[in-house]
Amino acid sequence: MKLTNKKNFRWLFAISDIVLTFVITLFSFFSCFDVQEIFASFSVPIIYAISLSFGTVVIFIVRRVYNIVTKEFGLMETIKIAFLTLIIHIFALIVLVASAYDIMSNIPQFYWSWALSTIALVFLLPSTRLLRRVFSILSFIDKKDYTKTIIVGAGASGKVAIDEIRRNHDIRCKVVAFVDDDTNKIGGSLANIPIKGPISDISKIIDFYQAKEVIIAISNISKDRLFDIINLLESCPVKIKRMPLLSEMEGPHERKILDIDVNELLCRDSIKLDNHEIDKMLSNKVVLVTGAGGTIGSELVRQIFKAKPKTLVLFDIYENSTYQIQMELTQQLRNNSSVETHVITLIGSTYNDVRIEQIISKYRPDYIYHAAAYKHVPLMEDSPMEAIRTNVIGTYNVARFANKYNVKKMILVSTDKAVRPTNVMGATKRFAELIIQHFAYTSKNTTYAAVRFGNVLGSNGSVVPLFKKQIESGGPLTLTHKDIIRYFMTIPEAVSLILQCGLFAKDGEIFILDMGKPVKIKDLAERMIRQAGLVPYVDIDIVETGLRPGEKLYEELLLDLTTQEKTSNNRIFIEEKAKDNKDIEKDINEISKAFKMLDNFEIKQLLASIIKTYTITENKK
Length: 621
Fold this sequence. Notes:
About 50% of the residues lie in helices and about 15% in strands. β21 and β22 form a beta hairpin. The longest helix is centred in the N-terminal third of the chain and has 34 residues, at about 110-140.
């Protein structure tokens, strides 16, 4: 059995308390009395020392002293043990004087010996608990493979951070300085570590100490201030971590040091959307999600499932990812017997009109969220026929049968690349929007709408997982152009928007989101390298590969408050409403026949003749 076991530590401390109390008590008697006086009444100090030793342990057990975690031993625990020790000795003195008055009450040396042993044990008994922390700190100081670390914030959270670092041997770092803005703290020290400042000089402080890591430890910091500090570290070769904010803590003892997440690297707040009304809309309804195995589709499935629909139909052409989301929901149903949602998983293609009609006619969904699409820009440039087959004809099939079988609402997942498209993917998604608007204008029973949003963090094909893999493999990070910028949102944000717009949909609207400021991809790449504790262009290079076919340098500005209508949600706007696209049926028929016989460039020309805003960015080969 290992000595590091908690129960073994308790026994060791109990034995230590007995031995220390016995030895110190006898030593105090021998120090204050003559030897002849001691041996004249030798039984009294022996009985007193034994009784006091075992009595102390009994009281400590009753007061749960041995349950104190020595790794966390601090001032309050020290005071508790010292106070208990003092009370025990006062009580012992009263008992001894009362029971042995004839022998020792008139001897002043006895009181001196009592005082000596009491003072010694009040200090010694708590001190034994501190030894473990002392050894932990000493072993921390002796580490050879540590990372020099600076903590931003010399307050309570900063103290928690240094305690966690010293306690947790898995954290391989050594704090060399605190940095704070409080002039009363600057120049002082915390936990024997110097406090420097102000925070605006942090880059100079990092250079002075040659630090490789920064932990932001300010419990009540605002998001804006957090982003300001991250920006100050922009040019520093350090990895950034932080302590959790008070609002993020799940319990009073949570002390985990967190990595800066992607949202914080982008220096933007998460977009909060209220899903209460959405839950009311979808509860006990039949919902169909196409593309249910994809990044957006699977998150749609998760959030819709939380609304407790009567039936949730998952439809996708790719079986593996669809199976994974099916298993995820199946596990949740097993864990929560109160949920009665019937989950149905079906495989098929949206461009197979027979299959689509079969599903919609059988399950009669109240709501359809159409996320099935090809979205990869460069790949679709080489396979425009497949983009048209899925993104255009597939959308037409779903919209047509939604109208035929009186679906309440159909929501199309679109993209910002549909705005003045320069690639096949964007052009086909714009075509899909026109289909939605056509049916919205002509249908009497079904409401249609589309939702546009920008790049989704963490989705298949997005830059964040690509950069992570490239960093793990030692680089370089590949960037199509140093000036390329993009708008970003998280997967849950994008899906919340889609569901929210489904609630607002009335008249074939194309909804867009205020996504805030765009992000320069080069800046994101540099931040991710620093987050890994490496130096951009030194440890890992960033290389330009050139814009890919159909790729824009700058995404279109989606938000124009002078022309767009605001909804009741101040982050959601309406770009367009339903309009009569009389030629849509003819265009569908024409492109359905022609794309089977034409080559890639001719198909793009045909697509451009229908989508007037589409600009072909390649020459005929």
